[in-house]
């Protein structure tokens, strides 16, 4: 379906799903943007956010349909409800955008992020790091005599919590993928 | 139908297939193969401008006066970067353009080659969409898609960047497919919302139509439907700068333009209404003034083809996404089927109120027998040209606002001005584009001397193609609007807002082989204007006007619609620090 072909009741659109009054409270929304995988499409999406002063908390992108040349951009953003509606409408205007889904309002969704952590240390700290990693179900993917690299998957909050615990134990580097998210159910 | 041909030939073939008769351009190294193909045919006229910015504005004038897309052909690097202002102008005013740029060969892209620029990168935020075509086999389909995207939904400029090796290489030409594009914006409005709007129209006591350029973009049929709806309901109508002409200025329900320099009756009607029906306008800041004091007691309906326009700045109660023509057709159908009801008694009272506001005569000004007042010059221009087949373009500034206030437009597509971007230098090249599309019409560019100088090189184009465009320059030797703001906001410190070392415009015209007229006495003005109209060829009319005239009415930045300045007497301390930071 065309990104601009909007059915009544759809949440993919600024006009029809207004709440009675706009609040000034900032909200965090996860948007899934299905785009044509063509050169420059990511620049269009990112340029929209920077050009109009919107926030990007995290952004992931990869081709999800090789035959249809479709990519899925998952972007986590914050803003007042009016700004969130405007972001969705502006994304829908981009010619190479096929669909915009607001996973935060369209129903329950599953959010996952992968991160790898390098923790450097020895003695008790090294043992404690390994013990905590076990509790968080983080895997050791590399080890030297004085360092570990842990791999952890989960909701962003879980990864934040793990990072907080690792910091006093010698956390030196973090690489995170950003959020990937899907709606639950069929 | 598929055929083998070079990329350069495909460009010309695709333009022909899309019904293009005129293109505006400037050659250069990276578009030579396309220029070679243009040389070899006679179906498409190429107008050689003197600067690429002029080409884009000329194409805008052509597009806005015909309803067809304007087409531009320029070279890589500086050719493309010079087009950027015009692209941005067209994006903000929703003008359909197809701009073709040459690019260095694909194997040299990224090497900082001669006249290389990242054209698609530079123009991404100032086009509706753009493409870099790296494969000749994909060129024709991209060209057709470009025309489709530029003209469907909310119109806008598109750019297609074509590397030189793609122009030389041979590929398969594909004809346009009628339903080939995935991009199909919604044109039909939602019937439930339309019915809600009709119900609101039936009971409203103080309704007002607030229309914009979207009505004109939708086409002549949409303007006709608007006229039918307004006249059948008796609801007063105002319009933005971009929408002038959609409803005739001579119509009974016409309030005049609204906004920062809009008419008193239009702005007060907006402020005091109980139902505002926005048709194809976008609540621009020149219209709304202070947002939290904008029409505080009204229910607001908004018809727009672009969903992102709705609820962008003003909260809407009845949103209708769709093409103005389609939606108005349905509104009329539903309204008629429900018995053509309006609250006649209340609207009659509302009309009385409007008449009282009209009596304020907000466009009154102090006349003079010694100097030509700019308002007087435009009143005389209106009187002497209104019966002609007339098209008006403008530059940007005081003269533009006075033209919008004192000239009357009876039909759409007759008024070409830079609204959203406010591009000084727009009007002259635009008048060239209009004259190309309407060779026998009277095309007048109402200009200020400072704006006009920004693209004066196009005199060469006007004389080369014998285009009888009339450059009506209201010369106050000032950047009038800048000067007005400095007077009101910056303690009368006129920092760099006067035009020093102006040319002798009569000699300038003659140097280009055109006619020059100068006039400084109000008593001579009519004769001079007649001389301009009757001369068969381009004319520069140097109209020396009052130097310190201010443009009123004016809603100062940061003020509401009912806080207008009506004249010099109102200006003392009118603008506070809060308003001064706004533009």
Features:
heterodimer; A: 186 residues; alpha+beta; Alpha-Beta Plaits; 2 domains; five-stranded antiparallel beta sheet; four-stranded antiparallel beta sheet; 5 helices; 9 strands; 27% helix; 38% strand; elongated; B: 583 residues; alpha/beta; Rossmann fold; six-stranded parallel beta sheet; 24 helices; globular
What is shown here, in short?
The complex is a heterodimer of chains A (186) and B (583). Chain A has 5 helices and 9 strands, in the order E-H-E-E-H-E-H-E-H-E-E-H-E-E. Chain A has helices spanning 41-51, 81-93, 103-106, 124-135, 156-166; strands spanning 27-36, 58-65, 70-79, 97-102, 109-120, 139-144, 147-154, 171-176, 180-183.
Question: What can you see in these coordinates?
Answer:
- The complex is a heterodimer of chains A (186) and B (583).
- Chain A is α+β, with helices and mostly antiparallel strands and 186 residues long.
- Helices cover 27% and strands 38% of the residues of chain A.
- Chain A folds into 2 domains: 27-107, ACT domain (Alpha-Beta Plaits, 2-Layer Sandwich); 110-183, ACT-like. Chain A, domain 2 (Alpha-Beta Plaits).
- Chain A has 5 helices and 9 strands, in the order E-H-E-E-H-E-H-E-H-E-E-H-E-E.
- In chain A, the strands form 2 sheets. In chain A, strands 5, 6, 7, 8 and 9 form a 5-stranded antiparallel beta sheet that branches.
- In chain A, a hairpin with a 2-residue loop joins strand 6 and strand 7 (147-154).
- Chain B contains 24 helices and 20 strands.
- Chain B is globular, with a radius of gyration of 24 Å.
- The model of chain B has no long low-confidence stretch (mean pLDDT 96).
- In chain B, the strands form 4 sheets. Chain B has a 6-stranded parallel beta sheet with strand order 3-2-4-5-7-6. In chain B, strands 11-10-9-12-13-14 form a 6-stranded parallel beta sheet, with helices on both faces. Chain B has a 6-stranded parallel beta sheet with strand order 16-15-17-18-20-19, sandwiched between helices.
- Chain B folds into 3 domains: 2-174, Thiamin diphosphate (ThDP)-binding fold, Pyr/PP domains (Rossmann fold, 3-Layer(aba) Sandwich); 191-359, Rossmann fold, CATH 3.40.50.1220; 374-544, 3-Layer(aba) Sandwich (Rossmann fold), CATH 3.40.50.
- The A-B interface holds A 2, 4-6, 8, 13-16, 18, 22, 39-40, 43-44, 47, 51, 82, 85-86, 89-90, 92-96, 98 and B 120-121, 124-125, 128-129, 132, 149, 153, 182-186, 190, 192, 306-308, 310-312, 315-316, 319-321.
